[in-house]
Specification:
mainly alpha, 32 helices, Leucine-rich Repeat Variant
Length: 525
């Protein structure tokens, strides 16, 4: 198996040096509709577009959301590849090296080794000779047939019953090369014995090489509930964040409620905020009643804001937090960021009067960002009761930006026959800019009725500023219905600014009828 793997690797190195990288790789998932596959596909689409920065962010998000996905190794490989393409060569070298050590059985392992050799050579030529140490490490691993034969022989003896788990563990204890120790870990993975589980736990905590430790954690994760005691030790004693995260997710993946207190303890007390958040996500993914209860307790017990935000969204996603609790957080929590995020969490809940809660937040909160969040949430929900609220905001809200946002939301949801609602705002709104916004939204409703209404407004209004706004709105209609109104203004209105605006609007409409009107103006007809 190992000889075949390394023969393929040597061939791959040659191919990748002689041909383009992108064409050598298979496409991302197609025809799959799972959230997992869609998330991975989003990152791969950025690879195809050669948008390397967004690809890295998308694949990192995929790994966070789906830590046990079959696409995790694929995602990690593409992160390394994107870093290489961004000329982040030192980061790419470390990334490929870690990948090759952590996923030696991955279909991408050979590609990672090949790319690593290429990147290390580039760094060495650029004056970084230390990179050649990793080249030599890879080259040794790919040409040392004696070591590979030992591994193959050991696997064969195990398969025939002529070697024991003790033999493999003794071989690990004698091995100095971390690459080979990683291979031994994967041999141990296939031995289903309690003493091997304990040994893997020991390796995960004590091996001097981080990649070997992480390989042991991954191997423990494949062993299910029997590995829970060892994974707990890793979580509590290992200083490597990646190993601790892997152990944390492996514990959650067991589905055993016995791990809930461990995850909750990490979420509440761990000094590393990223790990604390990871524990929250792990509890949310578990989704059992004890896990939800633990999340509810974490919300009241922890202080780090990012952890609390993660808890709020996790509980809202499971519909396990009440509107009253979120309303209280949005209005009274000491942290402004959590107050705003509590507003967004309300929209994730099912059932209850979300509109009433959001309305209360809008009127009671003294913080503009929270009020805006409540308004935008109401706009997104567009409850049937929201129209009168938005009208009130557009008319009476002193913050011009918020009042205009209410107008825009109304315009997006009204029917063409509802022009009277917007014209009422033109008459009653306190802000001139809000009144103008209502005029523009009147045209956006569409239909000849809107043009007629604005035409009448131009004739009857005494406000020259609003009349100009109405004429410009008619130009945005792109409708021949507006041409006669604009031509009349251009020819007969006493206000020069109005006449100029009407001509400009005719030009904006640009239809044959509008062009004919412009010719009439030029000829003085």
């Amino acid at each position: 198996m190992f000889l075949k793997s390394f023969q393929k690797f040597a061939a791959t190195v040659l191919i990748l040096f002689l041909t383009g990288l992108a064409s050598a790789y298979p496409p991302g998932p197609s025809g799959e509709s799972t959230e997992d596959a869609k998330s991975y596909g989003k990152g791969y689409a950025y690879i195809q577009d050669q948008n390397w920065g967004k690809a890295i962010a998308a694949f990192e998000e995929h790994i966070r959301r789906f830590p046990n996905s079959a696409y995790v190794d694929d995602s990690r490989f593409w992160i390394c590849f994107s870093k290489e393409k961004q000329s982040m060569l030192e980061d790419a070298l470390d990334c490929y090296h870690n990948f090759a050590m952590s996923y030696p059985k991955s279909e991408w392992a050979d590609d990672a080794r090949a790319n690593m050799v290429k990147v290390a050579n580039q760094l060495a030529k650029a004056g970084h000779p230390e990179a050649t140490m990793k080249i030599k490490d890879i080259e040794k691993g790919t040409t040392d047939d004696d070591q590979d034969l030992k591994m193959v022989a050991l696997s064969a003896l195990l398969g025939s019953g002529d070697a024991s788990a003790d033999d493999v563990m003794k071989y690990y204890n004698l091995e100095k090369n971390p690459n080979n120790r990683s291979k031994i870990v994967y041999i141990l993975t296939d031995i289903d014995k309690p003493e091997v589980t304990v040994k893997l736990g020991e390796i995960a905590v004590k091996d001097p090489d981080m990649n070997v430790r992480k390989s042991a954690v991954n191997a423990l994760g494949d062993r299910g509930k029997e590995a829970i005691p060892e994974l707990k030790k890793v979580l509590q004693t290992n200083s490597d964040m990646e190993c601790r995260k892997a152990a944390l997710y492996a514990l959650a993946d067991t589905g055993d409620d016995a791990v809930v207190p461990v995850l909750a303890e990490v979420a509440k007390k761990d000094s590393d905020e990223e790990l604390s958040k990871a524990a929250v996500y792990a509890l949310a993914d578990q989704g059992s009643q004890p896990a939800i209860q633990a999340l509810q307790g974490i919300l009241t017990d922890v202080k780090p804001i990012e952890t609390r935000k993660a808890v709020v969204f996790a509980l809202a996603d499971h519909n396990a937090i009440t509107i009253a609790m979120l309303l209280n957080l949005a209005l009274n929590d000491p942290d402004p960021d959590l107050r705003k995020h509590s507003v967004y969490a309300i929209t994730e809940l099912h059932g209850g009067d979300r509109f009433d809660a959001l309305k209360q937040i809008f009127y009671k909160s003294k913080e503009q960002e929270v009020r805006k969040a409540a308004l935008y949430a109401i706009m997104d929900q567009m409850d049937p009761k929201a129209q009168s609220f938005l009208v009130d905001v557009a008319i009476n809200e002193p913050d011009e930006e918020i009042a205009k946002a209410a107008v825009y939301s109304l315009g997006d949801h009204l029917k063409p026959s509802d022009t009277s609602v917007l014209l009422d705002l033109v008459q009653k709104a306190k802000s001139q800019e809000v009144r103008k916004a209502a005029l523009y939204k009147t045209i956006d409703l569409g239909g000849p009725g809107a043009v007629k209404v604005l035409g009448e407004f131009v004739k009857q209004s005494k406000d020259s500023d609003l009349r100009v706004a109405a004429v410009r709105a008619l130009g945005e209609s792109n409708s021949d219905e507006a041409v006669s109104v604009l031509l009349d203004v251009a020819k007969h209105d006493a206000d020069k600014q109005m006449r100029m605006a009407a001509v400009q609007s005719l030009g904006q409409i640009g239809t044959p009828k509008a062009k004919e009107a412009l010719r009439q103006i030029i000829s003085g007809q």
